[in-house]
Design brief:
The complex is a heterodimer of chains A (295) and B (346).
Chain A lengths: L2 E2 L2 E2 H32 L6 H19 L3 H22 L9 H23 L15 E3 L4 E3 H23 L1 H11 L1 H6 L4 H23 L11 H14 L4 H21 L7 H12 L10
Antiparallel strand pairs in A: 1-2, 3-4
Chain B lengths: L7 H35 L2 H23 L8 H16 L3 E3 L9 E3 L6 H23 L4 H21 L16 E2 L3 E2 L3 H23 L2 H11 L1 H6 L4 H27 L9 H14 L6 H15 L7 H14 L4 H10 L4
Antiparallel strand pairs in B: 1-2, 3-4
Helix pairs in contact in B: 2-6, 2-9, 2-10, 2-11, 3-4, 3-5, 3-9, 4-5, 4-9, 6-9, 7-9, 10-11, 10-12, 10-13
Classes of the chains: A mainly alpha (295), B mainly alpha (346).
Chain lengths: 295, 346
C-alpha cells in the first residue's frame, strides 16, 4: 500500500478499474452506434434500451430457463438482435429516404416504449444478477485488489471491439459493408443484397448493445433505467470521437472511461459531467471530433 | 420548394392558395384566442396555464426545428434553468457566484426578492445566455451531431442543477411567491394570473410569427432548405443559426420562468431530458414548421397527461407509441395535415 498524489493506491487503481469498465461499455456501445449509423444513417436512440434488454434477457435466462452466464453471453445478443431485425423491418426501413432526424425521433419513441414497459412490470428498482462462479473472487496484485469478473469484462470487451474492427476493416464481408456505406446503388448492381445487409447490420449493432448489457448485469443491478442515462454519455463519446472511424470509437470509449475514473478520485463533484465538458472543449478545438472526417 | 416546377393549371391553384392564406392565419388566430378566453371557464385554469407555458415552449422549439431545420434535443436546459433562476429571484433574490460552490463566493449581489416581472426577465436572460454558449458550441457540427451535442450539454446542466446548492437538489425550489405584477396586480387571484400567462404567451407567439415572416426568417428558411446555397449567396449562416438558437432558448426560458411563477415551483423534472423529449413530441404531434401546430400539440399532450393520469405508469409508453405513429404516418402533424386538407398554410 502506497500513495500517489496523496491518494491511496488502492482507491486510485480501484477507480481506474471502474473507469476502464465504464470505458468498455462506452466503447462497445459507441461501436454499435457507429456501425448502425454507417449503414442506416440513423442514430439509434434505442441503443440504451437495447443494452437494458440484454441485461434483462440474461436475467430471464437464468431465472426461468436455467441458462447460466456463459450461455446468456451468446443467447441474449442473438435474441435482442432478432428484436432489432424486427424493428428494422417493421419501422426503420420506411425512413431511409427521409431526413436523419426522423430516425432519431422514431428510435427515441421506441426507447420510451421499451423502457416504459419494463418499468411497469419490474419497477424502478434493480434486480440482482450474481457473478458466475468461475469468475468470482479476486487477485491481490500488491498495489490493489483485482476482482476477476471486472478484469474479464475489460478483457472481453477489448476482444469484442478488436474482432468487430477486424471484421469491418479486414474481411470481405466488411469490405462489402464499407462499400455499401459509401454507395449502396453501385454495390447493389454487383448483385449484393444491400437491404438484407442493412437489416443484419442493425441486428448486429443491437446485438453488441445487448452483449454489453449482459456483461453489465453482474456489475450494476438489472434495472429498466440502466440504459437511459448511459446512452446520453455514449452520444457525447460519439461526438468526441466522431463516427467515421471504428478504431476511433474504441480508443475514445476506453480513454474517456479512464478519464472519468480519474476524475472520481481527484475531483468527485465533476465525475458526472467531465465527459460533457471534454465534449465542449473538443468542439472548440477540433469541431469535427478527434477521429472525425468532417460534418 | 414544390412551386418550382408547377404547370400553369397548378399555378392558378397556388394563386388561390396565396389569397386564402392571407386570411387563414388571422382567422385561425382569432379562433385560438377565443378558445383560450373560454378555456379557463370550461376546465381548470391551472391546467390551461400549464398548457400555455408548454405551448410557448413548443413554439420556441419549433422556431429551430421547423424554420431552421435544427433539431435541439436539449431544450429542457433553457426551460428548466430559467424556471430555477426565476424561482430563486422571486423567492430569495440575492445572487451568489459562482453558484456551484457552497462556501467560496467571489461575487455576491445582495438583492431583495424580486417582483414577478423582473424574476421572469431574469430567467429569460439567463436562458438566452445559456443559449448563446450552448448554441455556439452546437452549430459547429451539423445534422444528427447537432441533436446529440444539445442533448449532452443539457444533460451536463442537469447534473449541475442536481448538485448546485441554490436549486435545492431533489426538493427543488418550493413555495415561490407569486407576488404583485408591476406592483399593481395581485397574482394570487387566479383570473389575474391567467391574464398574465395568456399575455406572455401571446407576446411570445406573435414575436415568433413576426420573426418567421421577417427577412431574417426568410434567410432561416433558406438555410433549412439548402444551407450550402445560402452560404454561396453570401449569408453567414452560422450567425443566423446562432441568433435563431438564442431567440429560441430565450423564449423557452420565458415559458419556463412563467411556469415557475404559476406553479410556485422549480424542480428537476423541468431540466431532465424527458422534458426535452416531451417538447419534441408536442411539436411533432401538432406539426413541425406550422405556426399553430406546437400550440395544438402542447394542449393535446397536456390534456392527455391530465386526463389519463389514472394510467400514469403507462403515459411514457403511450408517448412512445405516439412518437412512432407520428413519424411513420403523420409526419406533418395534426395542424399540418389539416392545412394540407384545406389547402392553406397555418
Amino acid at each position: 500500500m502506497f500513495e500517489i498524489f496523496g491518494i491511496p493506491s488502492q482507491a486510485l487503481f480501484g477507480q481506474l478499474l471502474i473507469g476502464l469498465i465504464n470505458g468498455s461499455f462506452y466503447a462497445v456501445l459507441s461501436l454499435g452506434l457507429a456501425v448502425i449509423f454507417g449503414m442506416l444513417n440513423i442514430i439509434n436512440f434505442a441503443h440504451g434500451a437495447q443494452y437494458m434488454m440484454g441485461a434483462f434477457c440474461a436475467f430471464f435466462l437464468l431465472q426461468y430457463v436455467g441458462l447460466n452466464y456463459w450461455a446468456a453471453l451468446v443467447v441474449a445478443p442473438i435474441v435482442v438482435g432478432l428484436t432489432g431485425i424486427v424493428i428494422e423491418r417493421a419501422f426503420l426501413q420506411w425512413l431511409y429516404r427521409l431526413d436523419h432526424l426522423y430516425g432519431l425521433l422514431l428510435t427515441f419513441g421506441l426507447a420510451l416504449i421499451i423502457e416504459g414497459v419494463f418499468r411497469n412490470y419490474f419497477g424502478a428498482s434493480g434486480l440482482p444478477y450474481a457473478v458466475p462462479e468461475s469468475l468470482q473472487g479476486g487477485i491481490n496484485l500488491g498495489f490493489m485488489f483485482l476482482p476477476v469478473y471486472r478484469a474479464w469484462v475489460v478483457g472481453f470487451s477489448l476482444v469484442i471491439c478488436l474482432a468487430t474492427w477486424f471484421m469491418i476493416e479486414r474481411t470481405r464481408l466488411g469490405a462489402y459493408l464499407r462499400a455499401a456505406t459509401e454507395n449502396p446503388v453501385i454495390v447493389r448492381s454487383f448483385g449484393i443484397n444491400v437491404p438484407r445487409m442493412i437489416t443484419l447490420t442493425y441486428g448486429f449493432g443491437v446485438g453488441l448493445a445487448a452483449l454489453a448489457g449482459v456483461m453489465a448485469a453482474p456489475i450494476y443491478n438489472v434495472s429498466p433505467q440502466m440504459g437511459a442515462d448511459l446512452i446520453i454519455v455514449v452520444f457525447a463519446v460519439v461526438v468526441i470521437g466522431g463516427m467515421g472511424s471504428i478504431m476511433g470509437a474504441i480508443v475514445t470509449g476506453f480513454g474517456l472511461g479512464i478519464i472519468e475514473g480519474l476524475t472520481k478520485v481527484f475531483f468527485p463533484e465533476a465525475s458526472n459531467t467531465v465527459i460533457f465538458v471534454i465534449m465542449a472543449i473538443v468542439l472548440l478545438i477540433r469541431p469535427a471530433g478527434l477521429f472525425g472526417r468532417g460534418a | 420548394m414544390a412551386s418550382v416546377n408547377l404547370g400553369s393549371v397548378e399555378r392558378k391553384k397556388v394563386a388561390a392558395t396565396d389569397a386564402s392564406r392571407s386570411y387563414a392565419v388571422p382567422v385561425a388566430f382569432v379562433i385560438m384566442l377565443a378558445l383560450l378566453l373560454i378555456a379557463p371557464f370550461v376546465t381548470y385554469p391551472l391546467i390551461v396555464m400549464q398548457a400555455l407555458c408548454f405551448a410557448l415552449f413548443a413554439c420556441a422549439f419549433n422556431l429551430l426545428i421547423g424554420y431552421v431545420g435544427l433539431l435541439s434535443f436539449g431544450h429542457a436546459l433553457y426551460f428548466g434553468w430559467a424556471s430555477y433562476v426565476c424561482a430563486h429571484l422571486a423567492k430569495v433574490g440575492t445572487i451568489k457566484l459562482p453558484y456551484w460552490v457552497g462556501s467560496w463566493q467571489w461575487l455576491t449581489i445582495p438583492l431583495p426578492p424580486l417582483p414577478p416581472e423582473l424574476a421572469i426577465l431574469g430567467g429569460t436572460a439567463v436562458a438566452a445566455l445559456f443559449g448563446l454558449i450552448a448554441g455556439s458550441l452546437a452549430i459547429r457540427r451539423q445534422g444528427i451531431y447537432f441533436a446529440m451535442i444539445t442533448l449532452a450539454l443539457a444533460q451536463m446542466m442537469y447534473f449541475f442543477a442536481l448538485q448546485a446548492p441554490f436549486t435545492g437538489g431533489e426538493d427543488g425550489i418550493q413555495a415561490v411567491p407569486r407576488g404583485r405584477l408591476f406592483g399593481l396586480f395581485e397574482l394570487s387571484n387566479i383570473n389575474v394570473l391567467y391574464a398574465m400567462v395568456l399575455g406572455i404567451f401571446l407576446i411570445g407567439f406573435l414575436l415568433i410569427y413576426r420573426i418567421i415572416h421577417s427577412p431574417f426568417g426568410e434567410v432561416l428558411k433558406a438555410i433549412r432548405e439548402n444551407e450550402a446555397r445560402a452560404v454561396s449567396l453570401g449569408y453567414k449562416t452560422d450567425r443566423y443559426k446562432l441568433v435563431a438558437f438564442v431567440l429560441s432558448a430565450a423564449l423557452a426560458g420565458l415559458a419556463g420562468s412563467t411556469k415557475a411563477i404559476v406553479f410556485q415551483l422549480a424542480s428537476l423534472t423541468d431540466v431532465n431530458w424527458h422534458m426535452s423529449g416531451e417538447v419534441v413530441l408536442m411539436t411533432l404531434v401538432g406539426g413541425l414548421g406550422t405556426i399553430f401546430g406546437p400550440v395544438a400539440g402542447a394542449f393535446i399532450i397536456i390534456a392527455m397527461q391530465n386526463y389519463l393520469s389514472a394510467l400514469d405508469q403507462w403515459v411514457t409508453v403511450i408517448q412512445g407509441v405516439i412518437f412512432v405513429t407520428c413519424v411513420l404516418l403523420f409526419r406533418r402533424g395534426i395542424v399540418g395535415e389539416l392545412a394540407a386538407l384545406l389547402r392553406i398554410r397555418l
